[in-house]
Amino acid sequence: MTPQDQALLDRVAALIDSDAYRGHPLHEALSQLYAHHLEQRERLERLISIADGFQQTAHEDLHATRHQLQRQLKRQRKLSRIADRYQALLRERNAALADAATLDPLTGLANRRLLHEQLQRLAADAHRHGRVFTLAMIDIDHFKRINDHHGHAAGDRLLVALAKTLASELRGADHCARWGGEEFLVVLPATSLDQAETLVARLCERLRALSVTFEGERLRLTASVGVAQHRLDDDYATTIQRADEALLEAKREGRDRWRTAD
Ligand SMILES: Nc1nc2c(ncn2[C@@H]2O[C@H](COP(=O)(O)OP(=O)(O)OP(=O)(O)O)[C@@H](O)[C@H]2O)c(=O)[nH]1
């Protein structure tokens, strides 16, 4: 209420209370009007106070709801971060499991199982489309002697060095696996026997030149190799067997050489 409004009301109250106007014909009507006004004002103030209360409660509710939403959002973000981390961990574990199932832990080359899968595909491809591939079975010569003279750890170092040499000499499309203890199988897709022989001769040379220093001692090795070209109607196990026979021949003939299956 403005000060002018209050002054007017004070004036009206003073007129009503004044003895000079008590008998005035408008006195009663003015008194009733004044009382009615006060009543109305009181009701209005009550309404305003109720509306204020509502507004306050609504404000508090809104605040509480916003706070709750923010907490939920925070919790959700945390959960999604945990889920992301968990997923990344699962991916890592899966990759590690896949590696463990398909790679040789010492050399990092494919293991026998993975090469079987690759050979299955290549043999099917050869059968369907007439694409030849060639195998080379590589076996370190007198590896037992190396282990016996220098220890198993030294032998392991040589195996790793040999695997690295093979990997660096092969093309991207070639496959190479650790087939057994000191035996490695190289698969050369779309490669003729002549091409394979050139590559194997170079591999033997590289292995002859390989030298590893282990605990102050220089270790060297040679390897014997059996080469076999896959025949379109054979299964790949037969080709491996032929490469193995050629390898035995190379061993029999004095080692550090390669022989080709008929
Ligand atoms: N250091 C090491 N040695 C291994 C591993 N796997 C197999 N060997 C050894 O490789 C040797 C293979 O011996 P043999 O099969 O008699 O063949 P070799 O001595 O190489 O003789 P030839 O093959 O006839 O030239 C054994 O002494 C095995 O213990 C390995 O992971 N690490």
TrEMBL record:
Keyword Coiled coil: yes
Cofactor section: Mg(2+)
Gene Ontology CC entries for this record: plasma membrane
Statement: the UniProt record of this protein carries the keyword Coiled coil: yes
PROSITE patterns: GGDEF
Biological classification of the source: Bacteria, Pseudomonadati, Pseudomonadota, Gammaproteobacteria, Oceanospirillales
Catalytic activity field: 2 GTP = 3',3'-c-di-GMP + 2 diphosphate
InterPro entries xref list: Diguanylate_Cyclase, GGDEF_dom, Nucleotide_cyclase, Rev_trsase/Diguanyl_cyclase
Enzyme class: transferase
Organism listed in the record: Halomonas stenophila
Keywords: Coiled coil
Every GGDEF domain range: 131-262
Protein name: diguanylate cyclase
Record-level Gene Ontology MF annotations: diguanylate cyclase activity
Coiled coil (UniProt feature): 27-79
Cross-referenced SUPFAM superfamilies: Nucleotide cyclase (SSF55073)
Any GO BP: cell adhesion involved in single-species biofilm formation
Domain of life: Bacteria
